[in-house]
Amino acid sequence: MTENIFADAPADLVLADRVAGRLYTDPEIFEQEMTRIFERTWVWVAHESELPGPGTFKSTYVGRQPVIVSRDRKGALHTLLNRCRHRGASLCEKPRGKANGFTCPYHAWSYGLDGTLRGIPYPDGYEGVADKKDLSLRKLRTESYGGMVFATFDEGIEPLADFLGDAKLWLDRFMKQGGGYPIKVLGKHQFRFRGNWKIQLENTTDGYHFPIVHRSWMASVDAETADMMSFMTDPAAITHALGNGHSVMQMVPEHSDLDADDGSEPLQARFDHVVAELSKTLDDAAVRKLVRAMHGTGFNLNLFPNVSMSAAFFRVLRPISVDETLIEHIAIGPDGPPELDVVNRERLRIHEHFQGPFGFGTPDDAEGWDRVQRGAQAAPDMPILVNRGLGREKDDEHGWPTAHVTDETGMRAAYRMWKQMMSDD
Amino acid sequence: MTDTITVPLTDVRVARAVELVWREAELLDRKDYLVWQELYTDDARYIVPIDPDTEDFPGTLNMIYDDARMRAMRVTRMTEGYAIAAVDAARTVRTVSRFVPETVTDTEVVLRSAQVLIAYKRGRHDIWAADVRHRVRLSDSGDRIAEKVVRLVDSEDAVPAAGFLL
Ligand code: FES
Ligand SMILES: [Fe+2]
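A: This is the predicted complex of the input protein with FE2/S2 (inorganic) cluster.
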């Protein structure tokens, strides 16, 4: 960073141990991020359970651009720009649903589930001036891994599996919280905060704030749960940078791989009623698997740039403007027979307790993020520090830069990726 | 059970319910949560659903789904001074009106209403509009709320994270 940071190119505003406050406040940087990052990398759009059968769809965004994620009759997933090829009307304003295709409400051009233009009313006006086959909906490349669906505007980008790289191992582990069943989406909270998207991106890998900001939540949970989250002074609780901006923060290392269970850990007494209910139909091992995963996995997997697989839910960010961001907290649970309802109800209650606009945790996080945005208006040339634990960060046996869970290793990893993408041409 | 249309707002049972709802609104705007909590019966639920149509609150994700235990913890959170969102909560002014008695008996009134709340914080006013349903249990020892369901018009959209209660 030079004296006058306003003369610096965006990529020069990120150093190994600090970033300029201007990163949160400069609308020009935000515009560049939308094209250089959100339109050039894999952006999470859905979980496959949100598109359970042929004709199901969901509307969402890639960066600021509205899209429809759909499943066609053969089961293939598509991400379509939610914009009619005629004069640009949005095709679908429903958050989710089932359809045979999409018909524009303005002049009734109709499209298939894969975006193909099927019909134009009164087509004689288009004879010789337009060919239907050139007017399909704009389609984004769509790939999924482990049930997580991503889309990209960049046709030439590396395959999703390569982009995820070492994060795949953790993604596989995350899905084990289904306790032997697949994972499904149970519902979602949505809220906005008046701050830059990167403030949220940092928070998904910020173990340091937990006991301070979430003191009120800690006071409201039982001792066992609070104890489980007492990672601040646990040297085994560590964060790894996984490459491509991804990182994993292990708060409860003994729950990092839910299959690794020597049977010595007692199940939490608060779930006794769940155990009793499940035991009517399932054997002890199956019950233990489901109940041990009640709080999710013991880590947050942060995938650059917009999704975190956080303990027992997905946390998705959507940039709206330089100083406004929308967050979704998506509750998940095992997708199994009705006997598992007792598990999913309990998981919903756990989710409500912390997450959402009236949770015991989220509003406090949001207040912190709001304040970062407000504070960063003061001297935008002053750095935001991401240097915690830099002195104790070491590559582990996988070559992953690793430090304590309260260290800013994950943030540094995300900013390395940010810097690379913002300086690429 | 008496038919909705035929019970006037001046019916003394309905008037008692309206009075309780108004009293609750004022306590919430004053953030007098300890007193507010006492308005509820032990078996009451206080619910802010996300799904606008559901009555299956336990089976779906809500913004708030509080039994007595959760309500008590929530009041602690709002008053203990450790929750930064509550300490710096918006100031609120709410109007509850457009009352419609849904069912009326000598022991219980189900009352529908509209609530418009303005929240002010740091130079900004936010509007929170909702349909509300109170189940009020009438008793000589004091009328109490047995259920409150607040259905925000934008419940399925992104609402700001709040440091106050609806
Ligand atoms: S804008 Fe869609 S049919 Fe005309
Ligand atoms: Fe947090």
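Residues 12-29 of chain B form the longest helix (18 residues). DSSP finds four helices and seven strands in chain B.
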